[in-house]
Amino acid sequence: MSAEGRAEPLGAPGSFAKRVLVTGGAGFIKSTVVLSPLLPVTPCRVHKLVKRSPTASHAHPQPDPILHHHDAQAFTYLSFVRAFEFTYVNVYGTHVLVSAAHEARVEKFIYVSTDEVYGGSLDKEFDESSPKQPTNPYASSKAAAECFVQSYWERYKVIPKFISLLQHNRKCCIHGSGLQTRNFLYATDVVEAFLTVLKKGKPGEIYNIGTNFEMSVVQLAKELIQLIKETNSESEMENWVDYVNDRPTNDMRYPMKSEKIHGLGWKPKVPWNEGIKKTSML
User: Fold this and answer.
1) Which residues belong to the active site?
2) How many CA atoms lie within 13 A of 279 on its CB side?
3) Sorting pLDDT into bands at 50, 70 and 90, what band is 156?
4) Which residues form the signal peptide (predicted)?
5) What pTM, to 2 d.p., does this model score?
6) Which pLDDT does position 39 carry in this prediction?
């Protein structure tokens, strides 16, 4: 992949306050974004990824506050004859970028999808909560990429996010009541589960990887506050929690049975108390 840096004439060289990384900047609409004087931050510097590739399999964005991901294989009719290429670029490529963005601590990751993920309709209008029902390989790949982006938002806003906030003397941000419960596994247990499926799993089978250990988000925050801020005072712990408006959709639980993979010989080994202490010291 080649990159072309272009400074907009919105201020003196080196005076930019924010940087925006735009993928797919050579496209029609995307190039308009790159050239627009109406970008939300002024002055700014825009980096345009100009060469189409299997989307940045070695992408290493610098810590730019904003990443605008437009890049995609986007011709619906071609997706029927080149479905694997569309899957590779649109799904794998997006996964690579959102992973690199997380590692670089990018402030915002804006993913541009398509109305085709909702499928067709003659009489019904779709909104953001409508189910995805793609009817072609292109739309399917964009819907799958959306799932990867959303999964990073869900995954990285809990334990690592809370730890990072507390280590920087900032409050844990909790959506809604914080009574939503989640199941937690230590990373090495997850890796062992993957290896177990790799070695012993039967082709075509699905294996749930989970645990019966369940904890509310607010209790998780309090345990991390105890470990990092070294306090057992309920009032002091509350001072490190910031409750904000809940998201439009915030599932209360994700109950799941994992007996099937237990039959392959895998079970979690690391207890919660041990795992969370190790994680909080990373």
Assistant:
1) 115-116, 138
2) 22
3) low
4) none
5) 0.52
6) 52
